[in-house]
Structures are given as structure tokens and as C-alpha cells.
Design a protein that fits this description.
about 300 residues; alpha/beta; three-stranded antiparallel β-sheet; 12 strands; about 30% helix; binds glutamic acid
């Protein structure tokens, strides 16, 4: 593992689509312990960017759950719903650099990976504004076909992406007017001075897009560590959609022990029953090299059912 810099700043960035479940606790705990072990700051950012997918009260429930598990953040929570002006400014920068175009593909024209039909980029006329009567469009970043991104993930190793071929011209502002996750996460990781991103491996294939955006906006690239996902019996990510149970906050110490086991860490001695004591033990002994370097682990291996 590379030695983290003195100015370590990590974060946990939940989307308030439902209560915290074991999968999100594992991601929160890994980023918390990594930050604390290296004497860094740990921030929470609420990614409330997609109201149709959100659940009323979920943001507050998530924050309460984090606190009940002893995961306390160091700075005020940043809500992405307050950050539209910053996202608009970033889009303006990209537009001025000639890197944006409007995609007016219909649902049927959009490729399996969410790709544009390929013609929109070459449509003559205003590249972004459009003309009266045009159907609404999404804004996409123009990625050259030969664009490649490489980075070294602290756990998953060196990653190479033929971005221009695989996930080219991705959306930065959706057709429905909402800012895309890829844009917001990059703008906010930069705004919050995040040096280390520790998160679930479901986001590993988002990272090349985020690095491309960082480069286009002139931002530094943080260090990345993608931890394995906990999956259901049928191999799906834990989520509200597949009925991952909400964490029982009254069993916080037990939940932390499960998460530490998942992360391959030394089990805290049984006499430690308070969450703060468990976290202190886990912080001191944090060994990221012991996290299994795989993309997913079934919950059944922990004796958890889902
Ligand atoms: N909000 C994203 C999620 O809940 C995580 C974003 C990130 O960590 O970059 O899946």
C-alpha cells in the first residue's frame, strides 16, 4: 500500500435512496478506518442528486445510523442538492473547452451501455443550446475514440480502460435536467479536497470516467481503493431493490464486527462491547492489505442472509 500523505481527506458519499444496510456500512467503515488510521479527516457527503430515486427521510436515517455506529464526521455534511451552481460552472468550463455536446438520442437509439448513437456529436448548429422545437437532450462529454485511462487501485491493482471505446461520450447532465453522478462526484471530491476515495467495487468502472473529467477540469486525481461488494445469494449488490435489510442500530457493535470480518480485519476482543472501543481497536490495527482483493463476496460467507 502506498504511504498516504499527511493531508489525508476521505469521505463516505451515500445516496439517500434507503436506509443504511450492511453493504453501505462496510463502505462507510472502510473509508472511516482508512482516514482515521492515517490521522486524516473523514467527511460525509449526501448525494441527494436524483429526487425520483430518493426516499423521504432516508438522509436523516443514514446519518443517525452512522452516528449510532460511532462513525462521526469531521465537517458539516455536504448536500449535493445545494451544489447546482458549482455543477453549472463546471459544465460551463467544459463547454468553453469545446468538450460538451447535446445528445438527442431517443431511448431506442441509446446503446446498451448508455452510449450515444454517435451522430449527435456531429450535428451541425449550436452544440449545447439546441434550437426551438428540438426534443430535450442530455449533455455528454466528448471523449476522443483513442482516449485511454490507467490508474492504480490500492486494492484491485492497475486498471486500464479504453474509455474512448468502452464508455465514450458519457452523460454529464441528464435529459431530465438533473446533473449526472459522474460530474457531481468529481466536482465535489475536488471541492472537498478529497485525497483518498475508498468505496465499493461497483464503482470501479466509473473511475476512468471520473479521471477523464478531472483531467478535463484541471483537477488532481485522488488515490482510489475499491473494496469488494457484499452480494446477495443471487450475486446482486445489496440494495433496497433486492430487499437488503436495514441495519438494526440497536445492534451496532454486532454490525461493526460483521463489517470488520468482511474486511478481513482482526476481530476485536469479545470484551469490547462499546462501538467507540471497537472502532478504536479497529483503527489502530487497520490493515487494508488484508481486505480480500476481489470484486464481490457473498453475504452468506458471513452467515448473513439476504
Ligand atoms: N453515492 C454513490 C452510491 O451511493 C457513491 C458515490 C461514491 O462513493 O463515489 O453508490
Amino acid at each position: 500500500m502506498p504511504t498516504p500523505p499527511v493531508s489525508y481527506r476521505g469521505r463516505f458519499a451515500p445516496s439517500p435512496t434507503g436506509p443504511l444496510h450492511l453493504g453501505s456500512l462496510i463502505a462507510a467503515l472502510a473509508s472511516f478506518l482508512d482516514a482515521r488510521h492515517y490521522a486524516g479527516a473523514w467527511l460525509v457527503r449526501m448525494e441527494d442528486l436524483d429526487p425520483p430515486r430518493e426516499e423521504a427521510g432516508a438522509a436523516e436515517r443514514i446519518l443517525t445510523s452512522l452516528q449510532r455506529h460511532g462513525l462521526c464526521w469531521d465537517e458539516p455534511v455536504l448536500y449535493q442538492s445545494t451544489r447546482y451552481a458549482a455543477y453549472a460552472q463546471a459544465l460551463k468550463t467544459l463547454q468553453q473547452a469545446g468538450l460538451l455536446f447535446t445528445c438527442r438520442c431517443t431511448r431506442a437509439q441509446i446503446g446498451a451501455e448508455g452510449t450515444c448513437c454517435g451522430a449527435c456529436r456531429h450535428t451541425p448548429g449550436a452544440p449545447v443550446a439546441g434550437r426551438a422545437g428540438d426534443r430535450p437532450g442530455a449533455l455528454r462529454l466528448a471523449v476522443p475514440p483513442d482516449a485511454r485511462v490507467a490508474f492504480t487501485d490500492a486494492l484491485q491493482g492497475t486498471q486500464h480502460s479504453a474509455l474512448g471505446q468502452q464508455l465514450a461520450d458519457f452523460v454529464v447532465k441528464r435529459k431530465d435536467g438533473l446533473y449526472a453522478y459522474q460530474l457531481a462526484v468529481v466536482v465535489d471530491d475536488f471541492h472537498q479536497g478529497i485525497s483518498h476515495v475508498v468505496r465499493g467495487a461497483d464503482l470501479l468502472d466509473s473511475t476512468p470516467r471520473q479521471i477523464a473529467l478531472q483531467q478535463a477540469l484541471g483537477y488532481p486525481t485522488p488515490a482510489y481503493c475499491h473494496i469488494p461488494l457484499i452480494t446477495t445469494r443471487s450475486g446482486q449488490k445489496f440494495s433496497k431493490q433486492n430487499n437488503a435489510p436495514a441495519l438494526d442500530d440497536s445492534r451496532a457493535a454486532h454490525n461493526l464486527r460483521l463489517a470488520l470480518d468482511f474486511l478481513g480485519q482482526t476481530p476485536p476482543p469479545t470484551e469490547l462491547t462499546a462501538v467507540d472501543d471497537i472502532l478504536r481497536f479497529a483503527t489502530a490495527g487497520w490493515a487494508p492489505g488484508r481486505i480480500p482483493g476481489v470484486l464481490s463476496i457473498p453475504a452468506a460467507q458471513l452467515g448473513v442472509t439476504a
